[in-house]
């Protein structure tokens, strides 16, 4: 009998609460109930002024996000702001930062590099410093105020260059993991499909299939021909689909942004300090060991493939002299094709991986600190 009476009283209490106009909840964090938001007639909005932001590694960038209430509240509030990140290759979202008012906490590899801007009421923009190659992807801005929860997204795309890379023994020797490692060792990261697609639109034409960051194998074709899938197919980025990550072997498409120092921790490119790639003009050509020593004596190191591609694409490096690179290959960058400088198209041209005792020049790399 008593249980029945309690149930009736609870039901009457709920009905009474629902019948009261302008029902509200209190801000228990403040404890005094002075700051409150009514469910009736007040809406929380979240938006971004830019759906996409473009930058380069080493840059500082701001991802816009703002929130506001309609109608406008008479007293300011401090909702919970959470930023999360989904890699460009897909996968689970990772927490970037959580903030309430002036208090914030950043997570993982974003720790110490991110903060909320808060330049004006409702400003929840994410300020990121020292961008890294793997920072590209979709960033999710979520604002929570009590039971109200709204969000928006901003895509961060890094400017750079996509380049094909193969094992020194030749084509189709790289598993997916080996492809990841190969790109990282050359100051780059696995290219995403959107990066490869953009490069194809800019004219990248390559007949050998390579791994992408999402585990698919694809290749860009601007001039269809018989050895590359047939000349009856339209130009485009052709796909083998997803392949077995351990068993199958292909080349790889890497992505490099600004010139940087390569520092690997937990498989991630961590240090991104601007630098310079240059051809060291020796009095004589050198074997690979002599080339390494020559760069060291000049206060530099032998340039990596990704650094040479970035210098060619972003710094317009043009040199008609073949030189050693850190992986033992010999290449040279051409932005203005001309006679006696190889193919009639711009690009980083390669002599492959000659025996290390062969004689060539060398491309060296100096970091920003070494240039000072």
UniProtKB/TrEMBL annotation:
Cysteine-cysteine disulfides: 207-228, 295-364, 320-341
One GO-annotated biological process of the protein: glial cell differentiation
Q: Which InterPro entries match?
A: C-type_lectin-like/link_sf, CTDL_fold, Hyaluronan_bind_Proteoglycan, Ig-like_dom, Ig-like_dom_sf, Ig-like_fold, Ig_sub, Ig_V-set
GO molecular-function term, one example from the UniProt record = hyaluronic acid binding
Gene Ontology terms, cellular component aspect? extracellular space; perineuronal net; synapse
Give the principal location in a single coarse category: secreted
What name does the UniProt record give this protein? Hyaluronan and proteoglycan link protein 3-like isoform X1
Which gene is annotated as encoding this protein in its UniProt record? LOC117549236
């Amino acid at each position: 009998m008593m249980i029945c009476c309690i149930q009736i009283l609870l039901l009457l209490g709920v009905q009474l609460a629902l019948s009261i106009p302008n029902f509200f909840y209190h801000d228990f964090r403040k404890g005094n109930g002075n700051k409150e938001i009514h469910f009736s007639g007040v809406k929380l909005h979240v938006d971004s002024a830019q759906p996409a932001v473009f930058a380069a590694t080493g840059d500082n960038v701001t991802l816009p996000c703002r929130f506001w209430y309609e109608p406008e509240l008479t007293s300011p509030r401090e909702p919970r702001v959470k930023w999360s990140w989904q890699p460009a290759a897909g996968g689970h979202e990772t927490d970037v930062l959580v903030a309430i008012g002036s208090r914030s906490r950043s997570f993982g590899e974003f720790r110490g590099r991110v903060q909320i801007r808060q330049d004006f009421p409702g400003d929840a923009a994410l300020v990121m410093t020292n961008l890294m190659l793997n920072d590209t992807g979709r960033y999710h801005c979520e604002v929570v105020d009590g039971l109200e929860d709204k969000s928006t997204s901003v895509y961060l795309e890094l400017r750079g260059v996509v380049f094909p890379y193969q094992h020194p023994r030749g084509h189709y020797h790289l598993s997916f993991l080996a492809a990841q490692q190969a790109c990282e060792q050359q100051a780059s990261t696995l290219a995403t499909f959107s990066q490869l697609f953009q490069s194809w639109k800019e004219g990248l034409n390559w007949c050998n299939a390579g791994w992408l960051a999402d585990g698919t194998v694809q290749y860009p074709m601007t001039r269809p021909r018989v050895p590359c899938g047939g000349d009856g197919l339209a130009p485009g980025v052709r796909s083998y689909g997803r392949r077995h990550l351990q068993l199958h072997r292909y080349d790889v498409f890497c992505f490099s942004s600004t010139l940087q120092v390569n520092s690997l921790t937990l498989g991630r490119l961590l240090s991104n300090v601007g630098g310079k790639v240059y051809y060291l003009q020796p009095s004589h050509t050198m074997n690979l060991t002599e080339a390494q020593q020559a760069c060291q004596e000049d206060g530099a190191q032998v340039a990596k493939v990704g650094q040479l591609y970035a210098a060619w694409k972003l710094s317009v490096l043009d040199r008609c002299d073949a030189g050693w690179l850190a992986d033992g290959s010999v290449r040279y960058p051409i932005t203005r094709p001309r006679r006696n400088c190889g193919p009639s198209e711009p690009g980083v041209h390669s002599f492959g991986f000659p025996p290390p005792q062969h004689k060539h020049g060398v491309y060296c790399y100096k970091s920003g600190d070494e240039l000072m």
